[in-house]
Amino acid sequence: FDGMHRIAKQIMLGEETIKVRRFRENPEADEVIELSVEQA
Question: Are 7 and 17 in contact (CB under 8 A)?
Fold first, then answer.
């Protein structure tokens, strides 16, 4: 979920109300970075 860091910050600051905006359709990402996890 894009923007979860903003929600986490408000929770850490003790905010009881968080304003959000929900899109009808998710906009396309500006950039997608593929991550790989190497198992040891």
Answer: no
The amino acid at 32: V
Give the separation between CA 8 and CA 12, rounded to whole angstroms. Answer: 6
Rounded Cα gap, residues 5 and 18, in angstroms: 12
Instruction: Between 12 and 30, name the one with better pLDDT.
Output: 12
CA distances to 1, 9, 40 from 4, rounded to whole Å, are 6, 9, 30
**Whether this model's pTM surpasses 0.70:** no
| Cβ–Cβ < 8 Å for 10, 18 | yes
